[in-house]
Amino acid sequence: MENDVAALLARHTEALALFTDRVHSVQADQWDDPTPCTDWSVRDLVNHLTGEQLWVPDLVSDGATIEDIGDSYDGDVLGRNPRATWDAAARAARKAFAAEGALEQTVELSYGETPAVAYCAQMITDAVVHTWDLSRAIGADERLPDVLVHFALDEVTPYAAGLSKSGLFAAPIEPPPGDSPQTRLLALLGRRA
Question: Can you give the CATH number for the domain in which 123 is found?
Fold first, then answer.
């Protein structure tokens, strides 16, 4: 279990570092540019992932519930300095998951009680896929590290088909023949590489 936790935390750190790199690559005139995420600009995408990180300390460290947090992170959380806001949120999320015993507990998510390890795995996958979205939007390198692609693919494959029912994800698409693991991951989540 200890090795599993260390590996999970390593993937989490790597995924956040990858997204951080892309956030710091956004040019001043790109914040309003479109992304592969329908109806989201670059700023909306970064805001979404930043908001997700802001939830982590409340849920994991403080044991808060969805009702406790309410609409605290609705709307624009980026303020005037999106990069600094992202950096602070990512650091706080990383610290919360890395705290002793944090991944041994249960957190309350919108769909019910969830092991913190599963929550962390979902957050890793979201960061990995949204790194690709942000990369495509700003013209950065779209190649994702193999270790993160394989992690995300293993994580999302069992439930990818049901994600589109939530209205938050596009339906899976058929990947091209001879596809790569990254292409399969993106196709599962309705993205064309």
Answer: 1.20.120.450
**CA pair distance 139, 22, nearest whole angstrom:** 10
State in Å, rounded, how far the first CA of the chain is from the last one. Answer: 35
Q: Which residues of 156-191 are buried (b: 16+ CB within 10 A; e: fewer)?
A: beeebeebeeeeebeebeebeeeeeebbbbbbbbbb
**pLDDT tens readout for residues 30-68:** 999 999 988 899 999 999 999 999 999 999 999 998 899
Tokens found for residue 126: 């979201």
Residue 161 lies in a domain: no
Q: What's the number of domains the chain is made of?
A: 1
Q: How far apart are CA 34 and CA 100, in angstroms?
A: 40
Q: Which two tokens stand for residue 148?
A: 């993160």
- CB of 127 within 8 A of CB of 156? no
pLDDT tens-digit series, residues 131-160: 999 999 999 999 999 999 999 999 998 887
* Helix, strand, or coil (residue 98): helix
- CA dist 125 and 139 (Å) reads 21
Print the domain residue range for 10: 2-141
